[in-house]
Design a protein that fits this description.
The protein is α/β, with parallel strands linked by helices and about 525 residues long. It has 14 helices and 28 strands. It has two domains: about 50-240, Glutaconate Coenzyme A-transferase; about 250-490, 3-Layer(aba) Sandwich (Glutaconate Coenzyme A-transferase), CATH 3.40.1080. The radius of gyration is 22 Å and the shape is globular.
């Protein structure tokens, strides 16, 4: 069957179940209750400290077929996922599902556990590196589920993703299970993506390399939700948190795109007192924030808050008084980690508070603007940030779809050509974010505005910015680089791409070798 953006999806998929097709960004409404984790009690003399992960596995006990969850705040410096799966392998456990909020190259050992049957399922929001390559080639016997950051929180809270045991990499913990991410040598900052896991998992295990005196302060996840504390030598390398560009780009083309994007935001009337925005860690996105900061200084206004993966640039804006608050679900560099531990206006938030569409109001709903990247965008403004030009998985929504849905003005900032390939297509290979939630495409060769935003078209045109039809940009790119050949894929579905509401916006098919 076809969903509302014309993508072919099955009505039932073995290993996934019945498929609910995407029907629109705000067309699916909740019809369930929040799930509840197992109720427990502790007597005064009970201890939570376990001697080893093996002891925890036996005590719970962890059994074949369970779902184990992990967070990704250490990004490419994580050590806990590999440690826990190695324990499962030693104990002969099979058929596990790994619910890991994002997968990085450091998680390559997971593939050995897939081959030996320890792991048979994967549920994640983003993938890069060897695991993503292997998934693209069909290493799993059942489809991998790819969610948004808000969609994962929704799935956990609403019982779609049931977690048996959450293993939380805890930079600091006390002996009764209070944990935070701002103390200890492996401080990673906000633990926002681990909070839903801790709230709803049947069992919660804090894995730490720094035990502190009780009571720990501050507390990100409290003792009331932690069942075991395991001390290990090292939970990860904070240097691996810095992944991708976290500096303002110096590329002239990128700077041109960023200046234009800031100009669009100004033309829309959003450079005003109390502006709120989200930016990623890419160089062009940070450059856009840089130019917005200059415009704010010239206008004498202060932003109410900034959201997203937080970098030193956002911290600098906070310290300079250009921002009143930062709401932080994940730190992208070590300056962000330091800031959240010392500045009361740098606020830790959970993934659910950030972007879950099925609660009484998430933070993305309060965004004035967000500027995001794209691998591809089609003439209906649907965006792909999941697969590359070769069809390989190289990312995923993360918060892309969530922020695009919530913000009043969503901009895609991207070079018109990437690797000599046009980014504007008739149809993206994989739809990640629906075009109805995207307002503007900003490239070095012009600005395309969604046909539904005639109001914005008038303002941006009046500002003298180079507005073009998106079909015109596509033709310009193809005139320079030619029309790219369609990517060939097989029939087998290797991943299901869920929208934030749990409907299926697209599927990823196995790459043709």
């Amino acid at each position: 069957m076809k969903n509302s953006i014309g993508r072919q999806v099955p009505d039932y998929l073995e290993g996934y179940g019945a498929v609910r097709p995407f029907t629109g960004a705000f067309q699916t409404f909740p019809d369930m209750l929040r799930q509840a984790p197992t109720v427990k009690m502790r007597r005064p003399a009970d201890r939570k400290i376990a001697k080893s992960l093996e002891d925890v596995f036996r005590d719970i006990p962890v059994r074949d077929g369970m779902t184990l969850s992990f967070h990704h705040h250490f990004r490419n410096g994580d050590g806990v996922v590999n440690m826990v799966l190695a324990t499962a392998a030693r104990l002969g456990i099979k058929g596990l599902t790994v619910a890991l909020s994002s997968v990085f190259p450091v998680h390559a050992p997971l593939l050995e556990h897939v081959q030996n049957g320890v792991v048979t399922g994967l549920d994640t929001n983003y993938m890069s590196g060897p695991v993503a390559d292997a998934v693209s080639r069909g290493v799993f016997s059942r489809p991998v589920i790819m969610r948004t950051h808000g969609g994962r929180a929704r799935a956990i809270e609403c019982g779609q993703l049931t977690i048996d045991v959450a293993f939380i990499a805890a930079p600091a913990a006390d002996d009764y299970g209070n944990i935070n991410g701002v103390a200890g040598p492996a401080a990673c900052g906000s633990l926002g993506y681990a909070i839903p896991d801790a709230e709803y998992a049947d069992f919660v295990v804090a894995v730490t390399d720094t035990l502190c005196e009780y009571p720990l302060s501050p507390v990100s996840i409290p003792q009331t939700r932690v069942d075991y504390v395991v001390k290990v030598d090292a939970i990860g390398d904070p240097k691996g948190i810095v992944s991708g560009s976290t500096k303002v780009t110096k590329d002239p083309v990128g700077l041109k795109i960023a200046r234009t994007a800031a100009g669009v935001i100004k033309a829309a009337g959003l450079i005003k007192e109390g502006l709120s925005f989200q930016t990623g860690a890419g160089g062009a996105s940070l450059a856009t924030a840089h130019y917005i900061g200059q415009m704010m200084e010239q206008a004498g206004v202060t932003a109410s808050f900034a959201m997203g993966g937080i970098t030193s640039y956002m911290v600098d804006m906070l310290n300079r008084g250009l921002l009143r608050k930062i709401t932080d679900v994940q730190g992208f560099d070590l300056e962000a980690v330091r800031s959240i531990g010392t500045n009361p206006n740098h606020i830790e938030v959970s993934a659910g508070t950030y972007a879950n569409p099925f609660n009484s109001g998430c933070i993305v709903n309060k965004l004035d603007t967000v500027f995001l990247g794209a691998t591809e965008i089609d003439t209906d403004f649907n965006v792909n940030v999941t697969t590359s030009s070769s069809g390989m998985i190289m990312g995923g929504s993360g918060g892309h779809s969530d922020a695009a849905a919530g913000a009043k003005l969503t901009l895609i900032v991207a070079n018109l050509l990437r690797g000599r390939l046009p980014i504007v297509k008739d149809n993206v290979l994989t739809a990640t974010t629906p075009g109805e939630t995207v307002d503007v495409l900003v490239t070095e060769r012009g600005v395309a505005i969604h046909p539904s935003r005639r109001d914005l078209w008038e303002k941006v045109t009046a500002a003298g910015l180079p507005v073009k039809d998106i079909h015109e940009l596509k033709q310009e790119a193809e005139k320079i680089a030619g029309t790219p050949q369609a990517v060939k894929t097989g029939d087998r579905i290797v991943a299901v791409v869920e929208y934030r509401d749990g409907t299926v916006i697209d599927v990823v098919r196995q790459v043709a070798e």
